[in-house]
Design goal:
With 193 residues, the chain is mostly helical. It folds into two domains: 40 residues, Arc Repressor Mutant, subunit A (Orthogonal Bundle); 131 residues, Tetracycline Repressor, domain 2 (Orthogonal Bundle), CATH 1.10.357.10. The chain is 70% helix and 0% strand. It is built from eleven helices and no strands. It is elongated and about 55 Å long. The N and C termini lie far apart (57 Å).
Length: 193
Amino acid sequence: MPTGVAIRDVREQLFDAADRILLRDGPSALTSRAVTTEAGCAKGVLHRHFEDFDAFLAEFVLDRVHRMDAQAAALREAAGSGTVTDNLTDALIALFGSVAVAIVALVTFRDELRARLRRAWPAGVPVLTEAVTTIAAYLAAERDLGRIAPDAPVDALAPTLIGTAHLLFADRGARPGRDAVRKAVTTVVAGVL
């Protein structure tokens, strides 16, 4: 892109480009050149807005985690309606149908990115820990409504559901169908419904 041409919302344009690369090609394909090429801008644009590529990646991951807030709110609002199994199935498909699985791999394999994220997110992998918190809050709401057992261990069920779903969705080439996700959810929560 020629210099002097204004780019609207550069940060979001670069983040959206990173999303597309992660979903299409995986974390190993995510480079500063790939992001700027995908975004249709000069490589220098990224470095004018971010200290370095790891700073870009850290802000990208945190931005995507904060986007999960709407999903969390929707799941909390679903408490008391539909079925617990369907609500959890839909939430897990929405979460892992996004760029979340690729972000987990990205964070896992980039030491400097993990170090930067630790400054803002002291424990766990941001996408997964936020998802566990969301699922636990939903399960607690359902427990309060009497739709799951009063002694249901929501703090154990939530990471079990997230881990199970993550394993189902980890293969970028073969996404599980809704029935497979629902079967896994049913198996995990059957004892507390």
